[in-house]
Amino acid sequence: MRVLVTRRWPEAVERALGERFEVVLNDTDKPLSQSELVAAMGEFDVMAPTVSDRIDAEVIAGGNRVKLIANYGVGFDHIDLVAAKAAGIAVSNTPGVLTDATADLALTLILMAARRAGEGERELRSGNWSGWRPTHLIGSALKGKVLGVVGFGRIGQATAERAHYGFGMKIAYYARRESEAAKALDAEFCPNLDDLLARSDFVSLHVPGGGDTANLIDAKALATMKPGSYLINTARGGVVDHDALADALKSGHLAGAGLDVYPQEPQVPEALLDLENVVLLPHLGSANAETREAMGMRALANIEAFAAGTDLPDRIA
Ligand code: DGY
User: Fold this and answer.
1) pLDDT tens track for 249-258
2) Among 6, 146, 158, 264, which residue's Cβ finds the most Cβ atoms within 10 Å?
3) pTM over 0.90
4) Structural domains of the chain ordered from first start
């Protein structure tokens, strides 16, 4: 069985894959072009892409040999599931194993934005720090503040737990239905997004990307947010209208934002680059060694199940 791995994976996983299958690795780690992805559909049995590959209908129509797309990552808005299903291609992802890492990063962004850590580091490195003073780079406390969690799946819950137990934040959440797990956190269920936005001091986004959530946080939603509040996004860039966000940060309506994801990565919306009150990270949510290896092993488990003709542990289409 021929497997194409589109980017470098942790060494242990590449080795494990190579011991079991005929694997083509991407030693250069450069993203494949659209035409290379199209061609691969006719040359491999399994394609193992990441969020940096756009597996759209044109790629899927490129050939009829690939029968499994084993995504390295939990989010799958870069894969056209409808086209895959129509072409009889199974699709899997890697849920669960990156929950803690992503929640850790959401807290990193909350803390960095609240405590103006990026601004402080830039000031110091540029030689402009003039020393301690009582009014220097004053941020916001977290204790007692309301964290509004938008989307209360695994990562949203893990973020809420860290914020509540670790930092004494109150939790409110917006989700389709009330969650049992929320009860232990004494979290308030807000079935209406506007209500959540209006009462939260920090809003952290944890919904999947794609058509249903595109620009969920638009100019109107941002205007609904509490004056002086913060927006945190570790989900997908397309969930936020970044021009409107830049306006809300410039006007001071929002005190700050922390972003790890962008609509057209690796491009970062120009309007944000000059703003001091936004923390910008390069999609690091799952980037720790343990997690990245676990993600690869999970993708491998799906490829092995496919090769054995058994049910995929993480089938999404
Ligand atoms: C995912 O898995 O979807 C992340 O965004 C990449 O770690």
Assistant:
1) 999 999 999 9
2) 6
3) yes
4) 2-97+288-308 (3.40.50.720), 99-280 (3.40.50.720)
